[in-house]
Amino acid sequence: MKKSIVIRWAAAAAVSAASLVALPSGPASAAAGGVVINEVYLNGGSSGASYTNKFVELYNPSTDPVDLSGWSVQYKAATSTTITATNIAELGDRTIQPGGTLLVKGASNGAGGQPLPAFDVESTINPSGSAGGVVALARSTSALDSASPTAMLADTDLVDLVGYGTGDTFEKTAEPAGGYGLTASLARAAGGIDTDDNAADFAPLSPPTPLACGEACALDDTPADPVVKTIAEVQGTGTTSPLVGTNVTVEGVVTASYASGGFDGAYIQTEGTGDVDIAGHTASDGVFVSSAAFAKNVTTGDFVSVTGIVSESFGLTQIATPTGGWSVIDGQQHDPVEPATVTFPLTTAQRESLEGMLLDVRGTYTVTNNYTTDRFGDIGLVDGTKPLDSPTNVVSPGAEAAALQASNQARLITLDDGADVDRFTADKDVDLPWLTKDNQVRVGDTATVTEPVVLDFRRSLWRLQPTGRMVAGQETATFSGSRPARPVDVGGGVKIGTFNVLNYFTLTGEAYDAQPGTTCEFFRDRAGTPIAVDDCGPGPRGAATDASLARQQAKIVTAINRLGADVVSLEEVENSATLGRPRDTALSALVEALNAEAGAGTWAFVPSPAQVPTGEDVIRTAFIYQPAAVQTVGAPKILVGSSAFDNAREPLAQAFKVAGGSGASTFAVIVNHFKSKSPGSGLDADQKDGQSGSNASRKAQATALVSFADTFAQDAGTDRLFLTGDFNSYDKEDPVDIIEKAGFVNITAQKTDKETYQFEGQVGSLDHVFASPAAYSDVTGADVWNINAYESPGREYSRYNYNSVDLFDGTTPFRASDHDPEIIGFDAEQGESTSTAIDTRRSIRDGEDLTVKVSVTGDGTTPTGPVTVSDDGRVLASGELTAGAATLTVRGLGIGTHELTVAYAGDATHASSSASATTTVLRAVAGLTASVTPGTYGRGALLTVTGAPGAAGVVYVEAGGQLVGMGLMSAGTATISLSSTLPVGTTPLTVHYAGSQSFDPTSTTTSVTVGKAATVTRKIAIKPSTIVRGRTKPFVTVSVKGSGFVVDGGTVTVRAGGRTSTGTVRDGKARVRLGTFSTSGPRKKVTVTYAGNAVAEGSSTSFTVKVRRR
Fold first, then answer.
1. Alpha-carbon distance 320 to 289, whole Å?
2. Nearest-angstrom CA–CA distance, 215 and 222
3. Of 410, 969, 983, 998, whose CB count within 10 A is highest?
4. What is the CA radius of gyration of the chain?
5. Final residue of a domain: which of 900, 922, 944?
6. What is the pLDDT of residues 536-569, one digit of tens each?
7. Residue 1021 belongs to a domain with what CATH number?
8. Shared-domain flag, residues 886 and 999
9. What is the mean pLDDT of residues 377-399?
């Protein structure tokens, strides 16, 4: 079962490699736990490797045995702030003796090398052997706090730690990259010396020397005799099983089996279960049986008996059954398992009560996370029609953001593929499920689950597993959605775009690696061909080869040419000057490629300023523009000498005007790329308020930008100024607030509800276009073109040929980057002023159309052209002016108060103008009616409630002030089973509808007629069984049963041997003593008659007894 989830703040950005700073050593020393990390081998399975698998060896240098029960070995990537479940290796019930070692077997990069000679613990831990990382020993199986290096070193569960390469957490000094490799491990000095200095304590060791402990470390795990339990008793009603460690025997029907793919087990469920009332269901009837042999030898539908030890594996209740611990029960009839019908979201308690059970998932859902679909085969879903919001994109940092983060976590449910396989390292030649060129599975797509699935909990998430390992073409869900071929029309005479092009480098990794004194690590495709740079130190970060660069460039070129902008600010372009080439080399190459497609002279770039900062980053910002539409005014300027940008790219400014236009059309643009959200130290540490790391730097950068913008606007002689780029800050975060308080308007936040970035299944905008007040008054529209963030990363050039399914399409712009481009339109030329007026109703009911009357007047001639009605930037209706007026119809306004804005875009001689009015949409009237079918006591009656079409929500029923029934209305109808103990007769009922977001609460009345229940009287026993004539006065025990309740009260009359005896029914039974029989015989008749009571009808039975003479 699932237990608490640590809510980790995450927002997103491209994380640049930061220089490592030595931190004070924490509690990680041998004295802390008596055990140290002794050897780490990082390249298992690679071509030329010594061993097929990676490993971590522990050593006990103390003089006492150390109990490792509840301990784990953990790994996090170099600068990651999370430790995933697959990178936690539980050490189990083991003791490491003085001077002893224990070997943890890890994942593999492939088939290279020899098998490990022996190991003690098998795991999926997968430390990187390229850039670097952090391996830790913990006295807990929960993930260490890795939100920052300081937090990890301060975690009280930390026993020992080694940071290597570019790992950001280490003892005193990180072990430098190099030395360890295919045939060399990182090994501690002899004797387990631990000086809390990784560089001093560890050195390369060739060849590696893995040494397992074997039986010397194993505790006596002979299980006690098994106890027979139901699966529900094993699961219990809490967050963990009450029987952990107990040897149990259970019976169930196999509902899902995973003979391959890493699950190594199957699900079983109690026969005849599944049709549950989720409101009252408290304990799951399904459980995971952990045994690869079991999974390989059973079939879905088998009725089995399983004996094994109950445990919790990372939050999932399971029974580990040994060889011979299970059997298929042949020849015994059993009731089939039915999928439980559910609709998410469900509460944690409800999910717990269904863990391991077969489900029929109803409803439609929205894809909110596809980031690891091409790697792990999972897809995050959420109820409703919108992906989950990054909290600080919509609410303030702090408590509000924490509450939304918790809500997001509670709503998330993940579709999975029934396997625990990292397709970056395994099964590369097996077709991926879910993704094809035609089945995009984009964030925001509608998902419908079409096959029964099992609810389980793995890798810290609730997941819907298929009933066997999924193969391509046999998926359990379908998806529908559409890709935007182009941005929406934003209007205006000039269009400005901004685009983070994700490390566009024309110097490839292979070319850099070929230079003397340089070295690179690469991400490689399934054939081993380098595709993208993993780490080239201070060198390039983009394509590995010319072929990869061509694929990357093709998508970027297509995206920019289809964006439709006249000016585009770019981020993450190669700063060629840092690589020994002219600064504009890569930028010039991009423009050349753009013109090759769009036509010679279509695009030009703004050359680098005469003065640039020293010590610039390897990536930079830039401007490109279309000379036919605009021309530059004056020279570009970059901010020089500001310490605020010591860890980021300095703002770059350029003024433009309409091509051939007057000076009145001048406007200025400043492109930005603030510090990423990677954690720093001190004020730049993650403050746990939802804004992630380095927020202090971004605030300082926002302040410096505002000052630089003011100076540049004055120098350019214009008050129309746009700030563009990747600010690495969501809409409600401090840096955006600083810019807005300086008077700038966040155009895309005001005029569109789309987002530019996806991170960990949540969407928000890190990229923005801000406008000064004078510029904003001329803005005509904005759009975020969702071509990248909503797409699977598997479609990037950097994932080319990672799998046998070809996802790359170089003819489209989709997944050209990880950020979405933005575009805004505005009128650079000023015209005759206008005035717009709006006339509309103050309130309507939900579902009604709203009529909006618009009139526009000018100083002279009558204005013409389009007008729009929008709500918080979302266009609701549009039309053309006729004689300066238009009548627009708005449909689908949501419930609540709306400030509607009517905007006139202007025409050739008239400037734009706008006006606003407030309209409130009230909830609709549900119009409730109810009818009841007569019922009988103990079985209840069915109440049918009908409301307006589309009404949904809770319906509850009262009788005499008592709750007698409750249910959910869906699509305007609800069927409710009333209480089975309503009194016999006619009872008045009041039916209440609690309302919803769309409908007001209401109620109605009806009545229900309940009749007496039929009963069945049966003999239970007659004692003594030997009856002698004239001597024995036997007792007769009978049962009186009613359907759905226990009969209590009423007289039972027994007639036997000419005599009559009576008794009273209590708790469904009556015991009556008979008189003696006056005659003997083999079949003396006994008649039992139940007279009934206030709620039950009478019934009778008869039977015979043998009466002996003596």
1. 6
2. 14
3. 969
4. 36
5. 922
6. 999 999 999 999 999 999 999 999 999 999 999 9
7. 2.60.40.10
8. no
9. 97
